[in-house]
């Protein structure tokens, strides 16, 4: 049985890559919270020049702030290393291009851990401070919030304004979890770029005891700042990279956790992965470097580029099917902090 945590020590973990001015904004909001029992851990992977430029400002924020410096590790491995260096009972995640809203952000997460069967909490994500729930069908959005489709795609819908308990997975930002479970289960699988939440959540679901749960609470809010430049560059990915990332997720994560479903319906999973990758590419990527787009313009060129990747899809899938899955079982890696 997990302990009841009436006033848990919370580690706010911020992964960052060359965005330290925006990290300072997160730190500023965090230091004005109505909750005092916390630390801030910055998992910084910036280049040396960027770190040197902003080091003094970061270090002036006081003893609650610690910095872990490393070469770029990628999204999942940076999360693993960050959690390994956290001291809290609960780890609360926020990305460097997002911003907590209000002074009750930490306390709105922390209060749920008084229930020993609460293992993790996801909060609401908005694109504007005055945003209302953006869904045409609120009941459908509520039902699908933080759930999995049959093809094991994580459905988001974290803009709803109602508490939901239980949910099936935790968002990568504005989400908290009992640190002991991350350490015990070995964290996140680090070889799949950009789709990193689910490798841990699949393991967590299998480790739950009767009555344990994850939940969504709309009270802790994070503002998503899509206009911030820099970072890992995932909003400028080519369709080829996006397709390969989705196929890696299915071949290396889903196949490991749900082998009968994946291999039994293999062609459907591959087609589903491609269609979802195309939708992500159209919605979020600003990639325009394809020769088709240069020759035929953005609209027709993009269509031809999508057809090109569809033609190569069987070969891309076959290469992954025949390749050896990189192994990962933890433990989490701890490195010395370079700034206190």
Rg for CA atoms? 20 Å
Mean pLDDT, rounded to whole units?
92
Q: How much of the sequence is in beta strands?
A: 15-25%
Number of strands: 11
Q: List unreliable stretches of 5+ residues.
A: 336-340
Principal-axis shape equals globular
**Total individual domains:** 2
Q: What is the number of helical segments per DSSP (H or I, 4+ residues)?
A: 12
CATH homologous superfamily of the largest domain? Spore Coat Polysaccharide Biosynthesis Protein SpsA, Chain A
Helix content: 40-55%
Q: Class of the largest domain in CATH?
A: Alpha Beta
The name of the CATH architecture of the largest domain is: Alpha-Beta Complex
Label the structural class: alpha/beta
Please tell me about this protein's structure:
- Helix 1 (20-30) links the parallel strand 1 and strand 2.
- By secondary structure, the protein is α/β, with parallel strands linked by helices.
- The protein is globular.
- The chain folds into 2 domains: 10-224, Alpha-Beta Complex (Spore Coat Polysaccharide Biosynthesis Protein SpsA, Chain A); 234-322, no CATH class.
- The longest helix has 25 residues, at 298-322.
- The protein has helices at residues 20-30, 48-59, 75-85, 105-110, 138-144, 179-185, 197-207, 239-257, 259-264, 266-284, 291-296, 298-322, and strands at 10-16, 38-44, 65-69, 90-95, 98-101, 118-126, 147-148, 154-155, 164-167, 175-178, 213-224.
- Helix 8 crosses helix 10 and helix 8 (239-257) packs parallel to helix 12 (298-322).
- Strands 1, 2, 3, 4, 5, 6, 9, 10 and 11 form a 9-stranded mixed sheet that branches. A two-stranded antiparallel ribbon has the order 7-8.
